[in-house]
Amino acid sequence: MTAPDSSRLPPLAGTGLDRSADERATTGLLDATRVDAATRVLVIAGDRAPLASDDALHWVSPGDVPAQAEWAFLGRGASGQALLAAVLDADDAEPLPAPAGWGGLRAVGGSLGGHDAAAFVEALSLARWLREQSHCPACGGLTLLLDAGWSRRCPSCGRQHFPRTDPAVIVAITSAHDPDRLLLGSNALWGENRFSCFAGFVEAGESLEAAVIREVAEESGVQVTDVRYRGSQAWPYPRSLMVGFLAAAADDAAARPDGEEIVAVRWFTRDEIGAGLAGTSELGLPGPASIAHRLIGDWHAGRV
């Protein structure tokens, strides 16, 4: 496999945030930073965050956060200030005022700058774990939150638990003989004319490369060759790490949907993909926050 151009990372794959992970074990870190006037907080309600503008998050002071929040340390800002996440239930749709309202990661992630995009995906990736995994999965005991929001310890059985990340592959498939054709699929849960790359979770004991071959064959009937790594990004719906690939079909004519998860597969021309990306046709493609959008856009632009 070949590595992608580092300047063309997916929108949620940036390294624009100093996570300062070594600080998480500091005793009293959350208590100390929550009373520091310089600390900035990103509030998460469900999968939404407050916006300062269409392309920037609205960070607040600790004192502005509702009392029922769960807290976690995200890292340090450019001036050394602590950055925290304050996580609320999904029912708290807009728990505090925001200059540009509230937005979900799917909708606004592709428009944010590198720092805010990295902070949003980190905070949202922690959010469900903080709110929903309060009990030990081994014995059912109530756990204690440690490491500034990054681990839990069960006092009943002594086990320690960490936020879970599930690897998944996502693949754009090029034609065996026509460089201007791309194969996409339509999921049974989607509306008509919505298509995207083929994707699926990596199974136990399976490599990424093997998962690419298996998932594409299962969903589209196509055997692939020339598998090329194109980048990765976190996708916290609920806790995935999406690993992106470009691959070539061995036989274009073999393409067919599995009839269960994938209800349609179709070869698209470069012009059809261009119109879909531009929003000038009925073809619905993934939003700009997703790695699928980057895979399709890079292929259309010849960045492969």
Structure in words:
- Strands 10, 11, 12, 13, 14 and 15 form a six-stranded mixed β-sheet that branches. A three-stranded mixed β-sheet has the order 1-5-4. A three-stranded antiparallel β-sheet has the order 3-2-6.
- The mean pLDDT is 93.
- It has helices at 29-34, 105-108, 114-132, 208-220, 270-278, 291-300; strands at 40-45, 48-53, 56-57, 70-76, 82-88, 102-104, 144-146, 151-153, 160-161, 166-174, 181-187, 198-201, 224-235, 240-249, 262-269.
- The chain has 304 residues and is of the alpha+beta class.
Which regions are unreliable across 5 or more consecutive residues at pLDDT < 50?
none
Instruction: Estimate percent helicity.
Output: 10-25%
For the record, give the distance between the C-alpha atoms at the N and C termini, rounded to a whole number.
12 Å
Instruction: Name the shape in a single word.
Output: globular
How many strands in all? 15
Number of helices: 6
Key structural traits:
alpha+beta, six-stranded mixed beta sheet, 15 strands, 304 residues
How are the elements arranged and paired?
Elements: H1 29-34, E1 40-45, E2 48-53, E3 56-57, E4 70-76, E5 82-88, E6 102-104, H2 105-108, H3 114-132, E7 144-146, E8 151-153, E9 160-161, E10 166-174, E11 181-187, E12 198-201, H4 208-220, E13 224-235, E14 240-249, E15 262-269, H5 270-278, H6 291-300
Parallel strand pairs: 1-5, 10-14
Antiparallel strand pairs: 2-3, 2-6, 4-5, 7-8, 8-9, 10-11, 10-12, 11-15, 13-14
